Amino acid sequence: MDYVIEMLNITKEFPGIKANDDITLQLRKSEIHALLGENGAGKSTLMSVLFGLYQPDGGVIKMGGKEVQIRNPNDATALNIGMVHQHFKLVEIFTVLENIILGMEPTKLGFLSTKEARAKVCALSEKYGLMIDPDARIEDITVGMQQRVEILKMLYRDNDILIFDEPTAVLTPQEIRELMAIMKSFTAEGKSILFITHKLQEIMEVADRCTVLRKGKLVGTVDVKDTTKEELSRMMVGRPVSFTVEKKDVSPGDVVLEVEGLTVPSKQHRNNAVKNVSFKVRAGEIVCLAGIDGNGQTEFSQALTGLEKPSAGKIRLRGCDITNATVRNRSKIGMSHIPEDRHKHGLVLDFTLAENLVLQRYWQPEFENLGFIRKDAVRAYADKLIGQYDIRSGQGGATVVRAMSGGNQQKAIVAREIDKDPELLVAIQPTRGLDVGAIEYIHKQLVHQRDTGKAVLLVSLELDEVMNMADRILVMYEGEIVGQFDPKKTTVEELGLYMAGARRMPAGEGAQE
């Protein structure tokens, strides 16, 4: 069997952790080869070795049977290897076209000449149905569009081996279907794809083979047509995983959160991003705000949690008006917030794990004495949460958060926010980019909050998560609440119609109770 790429006996160590321990991965021509594993299993590290971002401590890489040295991403590009990273590598103030040609700028007589490059980018965009605006700035386009830019960067460089690292973590259901079709069209043309994902359904739909890693070691490689979701999850986690959320019937108590006529201006255009939104969340219930990305959920969440100022409306927490309260005061009054973007709003990446775990409480007497932080108390508290929430890191509380896997970064935020014992937990995309074991764990934590009488507002793009977790579903479309549903009495298809704006509830029917 001829392989286009072979990674043989690859080993890579970081301080305190063996990220890759003697892993062999072989990619065939024109196949989609999935790489599956828990957060921190070593998937991204292995692909970073292949792309030249890391040098292996042991093992060899072969291409067409011959050993190759990949010292940096330029070497990888020269070998026609391209990579779409989980956290996109784009310059936000540059246009789409400028990002695509970056590093391979076409010049004439020493001056930038984009005419031919633009024609090539537009032709590729049309051929693969990627439909981007080459003159749009990255900071003004949706996450799904940014990913298309990353894909076009690879195609523009004529890459034949394409690495996708968690490509669907930030996409809507419709965008995921489009991406799957694009990936299949790539392999039909002879390109080969390595596809890192946590989502078993996606592997079953598009992958030919699947290699499973667990805690840095190779568990095995299987033909997808000969396996099941259950078997893959058992290989990945080492135990059976439940795909359904078990929860008791809901019995809501008093109103904890009341949003009344909230309006939030848009940064992108003149219209308001959120328009006159009103609803209530009661103690002991999970209310889920569903919708396609870019319909005002982000702006709403930021106004609710104090990151943005609304232009009209009121927010009350346990009857107390917090519309203009600071983030810290909202936290003190009883709001916890799992943010949408863990890097931008959830963590200080160059702080240690212990420092991040006390970000919301370091000024409290147990952690502070005469203006100085009590490091022993912070360490002990971090050790408690690390054990309780199974946060994996090479050096415990002393680990710099930037060096941790995305899933363990997310667990750290969940631990910090839930341990504050909040009245209201606002969870925005809390399982984005997580593996099935971590998703199951975080869902249990949210249900536990609800069962102990807390109010939970969950904002999610994942329809399966919405249907599984919610006691009540509110659909947001173009900044308005257009429908309210009982998950037991609706279907994914019906929600989809409201999310796409094809249907809406009659005017005057509010989402009050």
Automatic annotation (TrEMBL):
Domain ABC transporter: 5-240, 257-503
CDD domains found in the cross-reference section: ABC_Carb_Monos_I, ABC_Carb_Monos_II
GO annotation, cellular component aspect: plasma membrane
Keywords tagged on the record: ATP-binding, Cell membrane, Membrane, Nucleotide-binding, Repeat, Translocase, Transport
InterPro entries: AAA+_ATPase, ABC_carbohydrate_import_ATPase, ABC_transporter-like_ATP-bd, ABC_transporter-like_CS, P-loop_NTPase
Membrane topology, as annotated: Peripheral membrane protein
Gene Ontology molecular function: ATP binding; ATP hydrolysis activity
Subcellular location: Cell membrane
Top-level lineage group: Bacteria
Record PANTHER family: CARBOHYDRATE TRANSPORT ATP-BINDING PROTEIN MG119-RELATED (PTHR43790), GUANOSINE IMPORT ATP-BINDING PROTEIN NUPO (PTHR43790:SF4)
Protein name (database record): Nucleoside ABC transporter ATP-binding protein
